[in-house]
Amino acid sequence: AGRGRGHRSEQQRRPLSSTHTHHYFPLPPPDHPPTYQPPRRPISPHRHRYRRRRSSGSRSSRGTKNSCMAGVQERQYEEFFGGFYFDEDALSKDISLDGLDKELEEHKNYDVLISILTNGEKQRDMATMVEGNLGHIEQDLIQDYIKDNDSLVLLHDQIHDCDIVLSQIGSLLSGFQVHIRSLSSELRSLHEKSLDLGVRLKNRKLAETKLAAFVEEIVAPPGLVNAIIDGEFLLAGK
């Protein structure tokens, strides 16, 4: 009660709360606008608490005057420059405008972007329209899915049957692979045995060659054998 009229409490000096959903920001003015004034600062919701302490006549007259001035100013801005409406999220400090010029240049031929930049349409209206279109598209896709439900179920069953067949083929291939590994082991063993037999055959041939020459040298001719036998008979007869 003892505070001055211009005094504001700690709660009244707080920044704007998130209850303000929209804020109006006009486009930047041209070089020489006819009647340009800087945008008015949005009124904090805490100011209304402070105004309740004033008289009803002062509140009504001042509020009517401010609303009329704000309405005229907004109409002037919208007439000369167009305007955009942004949500509270658009004022977040996390939003970065780096690369905005590049993105605008890449998407300059988009009809939606051209319509927004030329006609000054509200972003929320555009978002609502796009969201509605997406909702219709989603409903159409759901209806198409319902119509093709039987075909999709049949396709699912066929895929399941194919999975079973492929699993069986995989089991057969696994068994065949094990059999091939066993055959490979047997072939390796047979190869080692064939090498051993080849070495034995080579040694036997070499021994046969050397023994044949020695046998030819020590074997007596048939005539000598006959002479020896005949001589023994003659000696026995005398």
UniProtKB/TrEMBL annotation:
Residues 26-42 have a biased composition (Pro residues). GO terms for biological process: endocytic recycling; Golgi to vacuole transport; retrograde transport, endosome to Golgi. This is Vps52 coiled-coil domain-containing protein. The lineage of its organism: Eukaryota, Viridiplantae, Streptophyta, Embryophyta, Tracheophyta. Residues 43-56 have a biased composition (Basic residues). Residues 144-232 form the Vps52 coiled-coil domain. One of its GO terms (cellular component) is cytosol. Residues 1-69 are annotated as: Disordered. InterPro entries: Vps52 (IPR007258), Vps52_CC (IPR048319). GO terms for molecular function: syntaxin binding. It comes from the Eukaryota.
